[in-house]
Amino acid sequence: MPGVRVQDTGRARRRLWLRITLAALLVSLAGLVVAALAFTSQARATLRQVDEQASLSARMRDLEGMQLALADAESAQRAWLMTDDAAWLASYRAAIHRLPVLLGALDGAADAMSSGTAAAQARQAVADKLAELADGVQLQGAGRHDQALALLAGGEGRDAAARARRAVGDVLDSVRAEHDAAGARIASGVARIQRLQWVAVASLCGFILLALAQALLTLAARTRFEAVLRASEQRHRSLVEDQSELVSLAREDGTLVYVNPAYARVFGRTPEGLVGTSLYDLVEPSELDAVRQQVAAVMRTGRERQGENRNLGPDGAEHWIAWTNKRRQEPEGALLHSVGRDVTERKRTDRALRASQAFLHRTSEVAGIGGWELDLRSGAITWSEQVCRILEVDAAFARSRDEALASYEPEARETLRRAMDDCVERGVPWDLELPRETATHRRIWVRTVGSLELEHGQPRRIVGALQDVTERKLLEQRLADSERFLRQVTDHLPMRIACFDAHSRYRFINEAHCRRYGRPREEILGHARAEFSGGSGDAAIEPHVQAVLRGQPQEFEYDETLQGRTRRLHTQLIPDVGEDGRVRGYYATSIDITERVASERQLRELTQIAELSPDFILQATRQGEIEYLNPALRRAMGIAPGASLAGLRTEDLGTADANARHVGEVQPALRARGSWRGETTLKLAGGRIAPVSHLAIAHRGEDGRVERLSAVMSDISGAVAARDALTLQSAMLQSVIEALPALVAVVGADGRYRVVNSAFQRWAGLPRSDLLGRRVAEVVGPVLYAACEPRIARALVGETVSLESVDPSQRLRDLAITCIPLRIDGAIDGYVVVGQLLPRPGDAPGPLPALARRDALTGLLDRRGLDEWLDTHHGAAQAGSLALLRVGLDGFRPVNAVFGHPAGDRVLSEFGRRLQAIVRPGDAVARVGGDEFVLALSGVRERAHAQALARKAIAAAAQPFEVDALTIRIGASVGVAWGIAPDGGAAPELLAQAAERLREAKTQGRGSLA
User: Fold this and answer.
1) 597 contacts: CB under 8 Å, gap ≥ 6
2) Sign (positive/negative) of CA torsion 115, 117, 123, 129?
3) Which of 283, 337, 502, 903 has the fewest other C-beta atoms within 10 Å?
4) Residue 878: which pLDDT band, with cuts at 50, 70 and 90?
5) Which of 774-810 are b and which e, b meaning 16 or more Cβ less than 10 Å from the residue's Cβ?
């Protein structure tokens, strides 16, 4: 930096002025000393202000970096949660790691400000936001993606971010105000220094003028003045060189004549190494022309100019410098005086902030998110460009709250209006997904989010975001439809289908698994198979599970025992391999092959039976050519075991009558039904004609045509003679038991009726066809059977037993029963029941009431039978609860009108059987009207259990009814009454309640439940 040169004009010409100049010199010297002292004091004060400003600048950069780090952390986490890209998680962590270092700026800010309250609030707000971001990361890491997104998009997350930014912004504003104040004080100090400099220069000029006039007399004064001036210049140089700003002097061509140490440090050089070089060598080439033009303009006009440009250090690193350039006139010519401030960090911060803002803008465009703001004073709405694109309007579209609400569908419009009112009145934010129309009348789904902003404690505006979620909504609908379709398909497949995770926990199951375990789907998902299997099959399955988890598909068979039933299963395990090649779990399909295995075993046994059977077995083609004769038939026909059967036909074995019957009766039956059973005659070796029991079976191909015939025949010569004798005996025995007034029935060892007489039919109230083959417990009812069962067991071991009044209800005390063992060839094959009706004291003579009141058409309980059941279960249900389901058929009356009453009767009978199939053995089913039924359930602890059975009844009615060639479809509605078991007269009330519920269900429509 050039110094100030003092020229000596020579010796004083007149001594007259010596005294005058001496006095003036003393005055000038005094002024110069005062100015120098003031100059020194002010310079020190200015240096302190410069240091303070530099410290505040550093704090400002840290606070700005803190804001940027918070924005980076939030943006990176948002991008990570939305895209599931781990790269964003790295950006998030980098931002989080910067924040603890930057938080030191708050402590510095608290020291710099008069009060540390704002800094403490900022630190707490930043800590809250960091905790909220950490919670989001933990939720995502725990696999709770939806909760992490909800936390990020929720009002608390936005409020925390706003509080943090606002708190840090308040501290930054305070520091910036202090920085500006320090700058103002520096400027004021520099102005004072300049004024002092001018005072010193003025004094010096007076001194020089006087010294020029009296050089010889003022030589000593000149020497002292030059010493003071050098000291002042040194202090001024020290002031310039110690400050952080970059200071340089350069000629118009760019040659540097002076740089301060700060200037040299920025460019990694020494001041001496830079002097003499060109300042243009340090400018980034792309900005060289602009710098030359600015320098030329300053030198040409002399006006101060400011600008920023990039400069290059020796290592190629960029440095952004904010320059203040002005022309300085020196004795040796005009110089460019430049003062610069390194703003590289600010530029980087600005660039990062712009990049973050651009990223947020791109993210909002990719996610289809736009912002909006509603001014509560004017009612005007401001939309971002993204919102305009979503709603297909241009930026000039006039907007108001009513216009914006009008584009929503009516129900959505009211929902949003209520949400906005709640937001304004109570500050409640909203997050809704609603349908609306665009300007082109295209229906879309949008997610709208809004929250309230206050000014001075009063509602000022509502700000929010709008996102087009139409595609996701459509995808969700398609996914739901696809999942429902997949569920319907898999639930109706005859196999078990499941998906397991790597820990063998169920992730998906079809309905077959629910039936397998007897549990609803919700109780099975998320649990392991071992929790339900009871250990059955675990040892056989586990090695295959370990193999499939290693990526090896498995196929095997094993036995499984559940609920007392052992089934053979054919199972396939398929590994579920992720994109990273790791096995995430496996898929399992199981087919119950119990029947197939049994069939294969039976086929093997049948083959052995055919070979070893004494019956005659043959197989022939459709044309009657015999292909197989079992050994017994070969022996009977006199054909050697290995002899060929070529040329032998079925008509060669039968008599003329049998062949004629085969053509006229057997072949039509085989074509129509596939089988025929009867008796024919067979020609055996030696011309013997033997009567045989003949079973003919037709085997059909894939086209439905008969391809082969099989026949099983037994020689019944002895049986025919015995049958004739037995027929005579049976007719005689039947006549005897029919004539007996007692109740007579024959029950086999299997507990089913074989023979009943007319008296027993009248007592049971059922026709003979409905009694034969049915179990005793089904006919007499559970209460009477439970009382009789010990006696029946004694009869089955050979003891004749009798009993009276066995029913605890005492309704049948006038019936005496005798059970006689039935012996056939010395073995007990059941028992014979003989019942005598005993007169009841005080009763008028007449027929005994039936033990069970039955509906003649369906065989179910009638209304009286239902009342008796309720009376019978009164004592047993006291500790439990009773449910009555009144079932009414929907659309049944047209069945009688269109198809006739016989078809309607068959539908009612079939529906009654379906109802019996869905209730427990101890429950009751009654027909109480033409098309109304009642299900009486005891021990029902929850209404949901009764409702589940009601849905089963509705499903049973929805299944089609096959009546001959007709397919009839009806439905059913159910009314459910549930409560504590009736005592006394409560049963009619419960029945009336069920009837009322049925009427409510009928009003709701077909297939309803009330």
Assistant:
1) 568
2) negative
3) 502
4) very low
5) eebebbbbbbbbebbeebbeebbeeeebeeeebbeee
What are the b/e assignments for 875-896, b being 16+ CB within 10 Å? eebeeebbbbbbbbbbebeebb
Q: 154 or 633, which is more confident?
A: 633
Give the whole-angstrom CA distance, residue 716 versus residue 615.
10
Do the beta carbons of residue 304 and residue 298 sit within 8 Å? yes
pLDDT value of position 573: 92
**Single-letter amino acid, residue 838:** L
Number of Cα atoms under 13 Å in the Cβ half of residue 230: 5
Burial class (CB in 10 A: 0-12, 13-18, 19+), 337: buried
- Pairwise CA distance, residues 517 & 515, whole Å: 6
Distance CA 110, CA 172 (A): 11
Q: Which of 209, 207, 212 is nearest to 29 (CA)?
A: 207
Please check whether residue 876 is in contact with residue 926, taking contact to mean a CB–CB distance below 8 angstroms: no
Quick check: 389 and 369 in contact, CB under 8 A?
Answer: no
Look at residue 225 and tell me whether its pLDDT is greater than 60. no
Q: What average pLDDT does this structure show over 722-746?
A: 70
What's the rounded Cα separation, in Å, for the pair 924 and 928? 12
User: SS3 of 31, please?
Assistant: helix
Residues 499, 484: Cα–Cα separation, whole Å? 17
Strand order in the sheet with 256-259: 256-259, 246-250, 333-342, 318-330, 305-312
- Please give the model's pTM, rounded to 2 decimal places: 0.29
Model confidence over 312-355: pLDDT tens digits? 777 777 788 888 898 888 877 888 888 888 887 777 777 766 66
Query: Over 90: is that where the pLDDT of 685 sits?
Result: no
Tokens representing 433 are 């997904």
**Dist. CA 714–CA 692, nearest whole Å:** 5
Amino acid at 847: P
Note the pLDDT of residue 997: 92
- pLDDT score, position 354: 67
Rounded to whole angstroms, the Cα distance separating 150 from 132 reads: 12
* Beta carbons of 853 and 950 less than 8 angstroms apart: no
Residue type, 70: L
Confidence of residue 744 (pLDDT cuts 50, 70, 90): confident
- Cα 247 from Cα 239, distance rounded (Å): 11
pLDDT grade for 237, boundaries at 50, 70 and 90: low
Spacing of C-alpha 573 from chain mean position: 25
Contacts of 849 (CB under 8 A, 6+ apart): 811
- Helices H / strands E in the chain, number of each: 33, 31
User: Residue 266 contacts by C-beta under 8 Å, 6 or more apart in sequence?
Assistant: 246, 311, 313, 319, 321, 342
Distances (CA, A) of 164 to 127, 177, 348, 615, 922: 8, 20, 22, 97, 69
